[in-house]
Automatic annotation (TrEMBL):
Record-level Gene Ontology MF annotations: isomerase activity
A Pfam family hit: Tautomerase
Name listed for the protein in its UniProt record: Tautomerase
Key words, A-Z: Isomerase
Organism of origin: Brevibacillus parabrevis
Family: Belongs to the 4-oxalocrotonate tautomerase family.
Gene3D superfamilies in the record: Macrophage Migration Inhibitory Factor
Keyword Isomerase: yes
Catalytic residues of the enzyme: 2
Enzyme class, broadest EC rank: isomerase
Enzyme Commission numbers on file: 5.3.2.-
Amino acid sequence: MPIVQVSILEGRDKEQIRQMIEGVTQAITDSLQVKPEQVRVLVTEVPPSHWGAGGVTKEQSRSL
């Protein structure tokens, strides 16, 4: 049973997340030849204050 963990910034609507889960599931079923019901996709939404790159948070970089 493949389990895929995806971390994304907060702010996307439920339909976008649903479509992403559908697309990831399809990619896994195609590449690993498993049934869609065997695939688990876990989505974690991270606030901009907890997402950093280059030593600054996404929240900080938005205000620059």
